[in-house]
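Researcher: Last one for today. Full complex below.
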Amino acid sequence: MELARVLGRVSCSVKYPTLEGVRLLVIQPVEHDETPVGDPVVAADALQAGPGDLVSWVTGREAALTLPNTYAPVDVGIVEIVDHAWGDRSLL
Amino acid sequence: MELARVLGRVSCSVKYPTLEGVRLLVIQPVEHDETPVGDPVVAADALQAGPGDLVSWVTGREAALTLPNTYAPVDVGIVEIVDHAWGDRSLL
Amino acid sequence: MELARVLGRVSCSVKYPTLEGVRLLVIQPVEHDETPVGDPVVAADALQAGPGDLVSWVTGREAALTLPNTYAPVDVGIVEIVDHAWGDRSLL
Amino acid sequence: MELARVLGRVSCSVKYPTLEGVRLLVIQPVEHDETPVGDPVVAADALQAGPGDLVSWVTGREAALTLPNTYAPVDVGIVEIVDHAWGDRSLL
Amino acid sequence: MELARVLGRVSCSVKYPTLEGVRLLVIQPVEHDETPVGDPVVAADALQAGPGDLVSWVTGREAALTLPNTYAPVDVGIVEIVDHAWGDRSLL
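Model: Here's the assembly. Have a good evening.
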């Protein structure tokens, strides 16, 4: 799981049928201190997150477990809206 | 899931049997503002996408879920033809 | 599996239901000589590890196997609290 | 899925039992224009590919689907011998 | 699958129960010509490999297939002790 900031949305005209009704967000992975990490990805959202929210997300088969139809071909999913994340690098 | 621009096709003489009839496209992963990200990959396509289309794609076990034979050995699949994607980096 | 040093925690207001009660830690991947590797990630913890501990962690479907509800959408999990790790680079 | 050029072979004295009889090839991932990408990997081969062939390969659980024993611990598998791949970067 | 040289071991006081008795080795991924690739990882070993051995390893769900308890939360596993690997880069 990683943290990310929600940046925007994706809209589609042609979808694989089990993706009908699934909301897709553009998210930018970030560290716990909100430094961006890597490139934005597209995530399925079942928690009604929106642009500006800090979220945590999973990849792979686990992503579809958050959707009503768990056989949907989804590999990135939002699982939490995060209040607060902290880490102390001096422990390294 | 990530976005990608379809660039071309792959044709094969010898295939694992459950891949017969599966269309394979060369796609270039891109960000929501269409900046290319990383290297092109080969994706299975069940939505009749073609060169020039903007698509979203998944990896892993989920990719084969879009095919008639879900036991096909496929790990990248196109799941949507995208109309529009946007993201606001000022939210970071 | 990789090693990591636990740096901190994540707290959330909105969670996917099967994640209720799952502790989430911010961990920094490290090598066996404790050199940091890559960026911190968020891991589910079922072993009561805490900030400062050296742990080993897994990704993907295996991560959820450590939780009471193995269908939880989790893709990074702590599986061991490590006493000691060593490696001899002169073997290369 | 990605494309790769077959470079060589791997031979082993001690194998996990379900890998008996599985041919292993050293392959170099390449792009559709045959530019090498990343480092060589070791792939299971059920199609009788050989050094010099251009192939497409999958990772993860899908790789073992090409083998007689689908429970073999294999995570890279060759699924096609490729005749031709093309892509038009001017579509970006 | 990738090749690796075994460098050392990991010992743990607290383990997820299904990991009891599973040997863990520190391995350095290498190419077929033994050039190191990336960072060392921790791998489960069911073949009695030891420091100095050249091995091949798999990631993900396949890794646990080599263990007595295939539900163990393991994502890197050693599947072969390698005698010889060769590849001819002039084929590129």
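Helices of chain B lie at 61-64. The mean pLDDT of chain B is 92.
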